[in-house]
Amino acid sequence: MSENRSSVAPTVMRLPQYTKADQEEILGNSDDPFGVASTGLTWLPKEEHFGIRHEDRLVAHAGLLRLPVAIDDAATEVVGVGGVAVAPSVQGHGLARLVVTAALEHARTMGPQHALLFCRPPLVSLYKRLGWHPLDNDVLVEQPEGRLVTMPLRTMVTPLRGDTRWPSGPVRLFSLPM
User: Fold this and answer.
1) How far is residue 118's CA from residue 120's CA, in Å, rounded to a whole number?
2) 101-150: pLDDT as tens digits
3) What is the C-alpha separation between 149 and 69, in angstroms, rounded?
4) pLDDT per residue over 22-44, tens digit each?
5) pTM
């Protein structure tokens, strides 16, 4: 992570909360830290948070939230993964893999069969390397004032149980996206 790497491997910890200040500690003070403001979407905060500290600084985060969905009109739930962030100064050192893997370990205890995330096109290859699969279907998500919109970002899923397959059919998230 720095030229003088510590012999101590980064450790993921569960965070009791994740504030705007925590996000700024990782990504800096930006109007669009995740590069998704152009979508015009309103997003849900996550409920479970995982992070990595390096030299007394929060450098990575992933959040989770259990959400209702319908897949081909069958109601179910997914664990939404969002707010994945790695400080630019430590990118390329496997921290995204560590924090997302730890979050998914916890997600396996939450009940749903799958985790779902939305990502910008440049991040699809990263998530594929982490075992996620892009959906071919459009995903409808709710927005304020009862609007229903097609998610403009790429939707990806991963099973939380070994042999669970994502069903085919249209997908609707019965909430704001995470």
Assistant:
1) 7
2) 999 999 999 999 999 999 999 999 999 999 999 999 999 999 999 999 99
3) 14
4) 999 999 999 899 999 999 999 99
5) 0.92
